[in-house]
Amino acid sequence: MPGALTAFAKVLPLTHALALLRYGLVDPSGKGLHDIWGMSSVTAEAWLSLGVLLAFAAALTWVSIRVFSRSAVR
Fold this sequence. Notes:
Helix 2 runs antiparallel to helix 3 (31-37), helix 2 packs across helix 4 and helix 3 (31-37) packs across helix 4 (42-73). This protein is an all-alpha fold. It is built from 4 helices and no strands. The protein has helices at 3-11, 13-25, 31-37, 42-73. The longest helix has 32 residues, at 42-73.
């Protein structure tokens, strides 16, 4: 995959979710997580990916509350 697409894919929350699922269910060595982060500690990579997912969830929750409150006021 080209470098720009690889960098974009590493930002998407689906990439992190799939890597965490793969790590938890199938691959305890964490190859998918290592492909994203490139660190030596699989546990730290899993926490970082979980942090990315939580950040996306918080951001989308904030956006949805903001949009709903604006539409409810009108």
